[in-house]
Amino acid sequence: MSALNNTDHKQLEALNITAEQVERQINQFKSGFPYSDLIAPATTENGIIKFNEADIKDLIRQFDEDKQYYDILKFIPASGAASRMFKNLYTFVEEYKGKEIPEDFLKKENTAFDSIENFFLSIKDFAFYDDLKAKLEEHDKDINTLLNENRLVEIAEFLLENDGLGYGKSPKALLKFHKYKETSRFALEEHLVEATQYSTVDTEDGEIAQLHFTVSQEHLEMFKNTVDELLPIYEREYGIRYNISYSVQKPSTDTIAVDMNNEPFRNNDGSLLFRPGGHGALIQNLNDLHKEIIFIKNIDNVVPDRLKTTTYDYKKVLGGYLFRLQQQQFEYLNLLDEGCLANDEIDEIAKFAKEKLMIDIPNFFKTYNEIEKIDFLYGKLNRPMRVCGMVKNEGEPGGGPYWVRNSNDEISLQIVESSQIDHNNEKQEAIFQSATHFNPVDLVCAAQDFKGDSFDLNDYIDHNTGFISKKSKDGKELKALELPGLWNGAMADWINIFVEVPIITFNPVKTVNDLLRDNHQED
Predict the structure, then answer these.
(1) How many domains does the chain have?
(2) Which of 117, 354, 366, 474 is the residue whose CA sits 20 to 30 A from 157?
(3) Distance between CA atoms of residues 236 and 229, nearest Å
């Protein structure tokens, strides 16, 4: 690596990034990241738990009874801008701006669901339609006239640009997702409603719903102002209070970019170029919260009220199962901490670790003496734990659940992304393709130990699970480094439990037309 100059060191100091971090990242560019070593897919026969109806009712009951004893928070990654949702619409504007649109553009039969034509044909079904109509009227434009005259570019621009609704540059959290008889709701509001059911804590002054949003710095003020306007409405409606907190992705988690020779990429002014380290950087935000129980759910995975009951039930199932496992885990950890266990007690704990916590107990464990067995089990049990919902694979993109061998020859359950797989390796590709489930990012996490102290989540990151991509800036090619993903490598050394949940609990909005799907329509 080329030597860093005095100006570079000042830049690093301002970002709270060390020269050692930069050197380590550049070495990762040079060496690359190893592929995951898949052993087998996790299935309901091996690694994914499938509860029957009686189990589900019992776990919901346990969650409702026990949640009063826990400090529970809902964590929502919400820093992404919505621009990618409107990619096709931006392309449409670029193609037709200043040009005449064919008369039959909106009269084609068998219009594809995610097409531009379908967007305009169904525009009145979007929750943001009334706001768009009103914004156009402020400028003496009638949306029906624009539709009839094929002035579709004007409609699109008013939706996307800042002199209209500004949706193209807004955070996804502040887009109207769902329409109701009397109102419509932002994605953010649906999370406020959900939180009343499973992320509340009991206080002398009543229930408080706790939520934490990760927000980009540019949207933070807009976010806070919107929440301040909304909270009184929902506090009156649901008879609770809210405790809302925010954080931004830390500059110290940005990663250095390099040129194609793996030398630091420099901006035109000579400064080093750093880029956001991906959602894996949010493990630092999570670590700073020092909360006991944390539900994690993406900002766009929400449904209207008519479908929320199933969401609530399975959130409680995941939470109730975490409570049940943790209570037994803590009981065993107290015994292990005291030492002097009988052989049958050690065997009982090992059985729990293997059968309930899905921890691989290697054959050489049998050769250990009593102290070695206690030390081994203590180390395996005294870690943060998460219970992850897994949905049956129906062709959706995203990571999946697998049994994976790490560099220390340890086998564990992991969520693995396609980018982590050597697709040229026939055996690995066959395992990858045989997955029966995928990850919908539906997690509940336990982040404190049996003594009530918060884990340092940095201790459980697999730093060999990052990702390198090619980008460009100012017409020059560069390589960018993404940190281990939040629910992949950043949580790789957690105790990982996978539970099957129904597909109805997974309703992401990746394109604007996804809001036209039945699961995002109230009626």
Answers:
(1) 2
(2) 474
(3) 13
Residue with tokens 């020092």: 290
Residues above pLDDT 70, as percent of the chain: 98
For residues 149 and 157, the answer to whether their CB atoms sit within 8 Å is no
- Assess whether 19 and 146 both reside in one domain: no
What interhelical angle do 187-198 and 220-238 show, nearest 10?
A: 50
Domain-located, residue 229: no
Q: Decide: pTM greater than 0.90.
A: yes
327: which strand partners?
none
Indicate left, alpha or beta for 150 from its phi (over 0: left) and psi (-120 to 50: alpha). Answer: left
Tell how strand 467-473 and strand 385-392 pair up. unpaired
Shared domain for 367 and 491, answered yes or no, is yes
Work out the widest C-alpha separation in the chain, in whole angstroms: 84
The Cα 7–Cα 76 span in angstroms is 37
* Domain range enclosing 129: 85-169
pLDDT digits (tens, 9 = 90+) for 96-117: 998 888 888 887 665 777 789 9
- The domain boundary, picked from 112, 137, 169, lies at 169
Task: Give the DSSP H or E segment for 186.
Answer: strand 184-186
DSSP class of 98: T
In a domain, 45, yes or no: yes
